[in-house]
Amino acid sequence: MEREMIDGHAHLDELEDIDLAMARAKEVGLRYIVGVGMDTESNRKILSIAESFPEVVLPSIGYHPWSITTDSIEENILFLEQHLDRCVSLGEIGLDYGAKAKKKIQKQVFARLLEIALRKEKPIIVHSRYSHQSTYSMVRDAGVKMAVFHWYSGPLDILKSIIDSGYYVSATPALASMLLN
Prior knowledge:
By secondary structure, the chain is of the alpha/beta class. It has a single domain (5-180), classed as Alpha-Beta Barrel (TIM Barrel), CATH 3.20.20. Helix content is 44%, strand content 20%. The chain contains seven helices and seven strands. Strands 1-2-3-4-5-6-7 form a seven-stranded parallel β-sheet. The radius of gyration is 16 Å and the shape is globular.
């Protein structure tokens, strides 16, 4: 029995030769690719790529904590509101306490994005570097039903809580290393 492979998180907008990448994906049997965005510019690119490769690319637009600046918040949120219906999920979103944006602003933006996801009934792709407990608590307390904690590298007790809550975690080299040691 042949299984279909899905890449659940790819920053396709960063690739130099998208046609070559799609050809290679097909060669190795990749059925779908969730193309994720980080800000208005990358979200536009992801939507365009998804239009060019509708049989493979599933768009997911987001507002990554690395991209948050006080002068771009409203523009990015408005874009998400206007285009999220065309997407399979909202992401990549979350908190990153190593990013330039202040924690308070990140939390305010993340809370607004969680409200949008709930209202539009979309799963989320979560970034949670150096903010594992805060991110998990906000997702859980907001009542989000479907979430993938992308590239999780936090403590095992929080990982257990994430999984026990019915959320998913993407497997990463950092997590594999933690589990093996």
